[in-house]
Fold this protein.
Amino acid sequence: MTSLICALVGVAMLALCGVALRLWPKIGLIAPVVAGLLIALAYDAVIVAIGRFVGFGDALRALNVPRLWIAAIVPPLLILVAGYLVRRLGVDQASGRNITLGGYALVAMLILIGVVGAGRADLVPEETGGALRYVDDAASGPPVPAVITVLALIVLGMAAFRYAGFPWLFLGAIVMLITGAAAFAVLWIGFLGQLVLMMSVVAAMAAVAGYRVPVVTALRDMGSRGGSR
């Protein structure tokens, strides 16, 4: 079951990649950036999906090495993507110089932590729910960069919800927080959480591009009045 769900998630990520690229003419270079992140996440899911067919050994281990770097680099970059989209949604509170510089510093720190961890990784085989993969035996406890990333996305999502009436980034980040914790017990739940999060990111891209995406109009109007005082 885990392999099947991961395969479906991988296909869905690639479909979202196509949607993101179609938005390129309307929203600019953020589209190929998001498309690249989606391809990386699709790779992550697909390698877990095919693990049982490849079997433990050098080949599967080599295929799993990029997953370490994806986990180190992709999640923090989502902070920059979300910050950009929130500003494009009209949330001026997220565009201050100090906030922007602080966001870049946070992302750089999280990537550095992830890269150092990936460089020191000791890959060992693991079977979870019938899926075969290699994991870092040196890792212990929850991945700090990923947790901080989700918390930062929740904050950005709350800003978009409060000031633009756009709830989807916030809800996507909340789902990722819950499913990320549940993934320690059931692996595939975490991949579904990633898919929901990326769907919320693409929804934000569509809203920025001018497509009609459901928003909470009353909350948006309330935020506009509050920001104009």
Notes: The chain has a mean pLDDT of 91. The chain has nine helices and two strands. Strands lie at 123-128, 131-136.
